[in-house]
Design goal:
The protein is an alpha/beta fold. Helix content is 42%, strand content 13%.
């Protein structure tokens, strides 16, 4: 047997994440998602590596804020897929259908934006839901009290405030 030059600890790295990966395996490539709306988002937004159209204003702004390229492309594609014309970052002006809240926003402001998004019926994206323990607990509380569909793909948490029933998809 050929020696790899790695220690046993290095070879076993990542096994701690195995239970989470196994639990999410049923949603791989959209299988197990029983909502046609969320299935189309998985297939046409999360699985795309390139922008759907030439519009890239949101993507460029997120990249300037330090967001990973893949996440910025996915959020731009979500905006295009859902047909939103305008967006807001870390705020929620009136009649804005799509808003993104970064991890730099404090808990009280985040909760206020979640409540305002629910009142206005707009889609809200919480970036980095697993950034720290406090952020994870905040996002779990928000999902527990959310009245509509939410989608968690580990990079961000999407809260839809539309006609969809209360469901939570953890991809």
């Amino acid at each position: 047997m050929k020696k790899s030059g790695r220690t046993l600890k290095q070879r076993l790295y990542g096994l701690g994440q195995l239970p989470g990966r196994v639990a999410r395996a049923r949603y791989f490539r959209g299988h197990g998602v029983h909502s046609p709306y969320v299935y189309s988002i998985v297939r046409q937004v999360f699985m795309q590596r390139n922008l759907l159209t030439a519009r890239r204003d949101l993507c460029d702004e997120l990249l300037a804020l330090g967001a990973p390229r893949r996440r910025a492309i996915q959020l731009q594609n979500l905006m295009i897929h859902c047909g939103y014309a305008t967006y807001a970052i870390n705020c929620l002006p009136a009649a804005c259908p799509y808003a993104i809240v970064t991890s730099e926003v404090d808990e009280a402001t985040t909760l206020a934006l979640v409540g305002k998004a629910e009142e206005q019926g707009c889609t809200l994206v919480l970036a980095s839901p697993y950034n720290c323990r406090e952020r994870t607990e905040l996002c779990q509380r928000i999902v527990a009290h959310h009245k509509c569909t939410s989608v968690d793909n580990r990079g961000y948490l999407i809260l839809f405030n539309n006609h969809l029933p209360k469901q939570h998809f953890k991809l």
